[in-house]
């Protein structure tokens, strides 16, 4: 008996869900006014979509917040850390085959 698969099913089988090959630092401590970076590496079938969250609220680029994703390296760069930048940061990487999460706790010292 031959198992028939649709092209869509076949396509999904060949896709690799994302995974973190280098996780974010579990905890980041920084002094107020300094910059901090959260950096990780991922693997998985392209295209990969990256989203960043702080305390479950999605983050977007701003003059103080730089987000980049190049060569499977993801980076969140906060340029002038304040008390309101402290919290739980989560990076979610997704593709057609699934998604992966990595979390970092950021502490800002006054």
UniProtKB/TrEMBL annotation:
Residues 18-107 form the Ig-like domain. Transmembrane segments: none annotated. Pfam families: I-set. PROSITE patterns: IG_LIKE. InterPro entries: Ig-like_dom (IPR007110), Ig-like_dom_sf (IPR036179), Ig-like_fold (IPR013783), Ig_I-set (IPR013098), Ig_sub (IPR003599), Ig_sub2 (IPR003598). Gene3D superfamilies: Immunoglobulins. It comes from the Eukaryota. This is Ig-like domain-containing protein. It comes from Salvator merianae (Argentine black and white tegu).
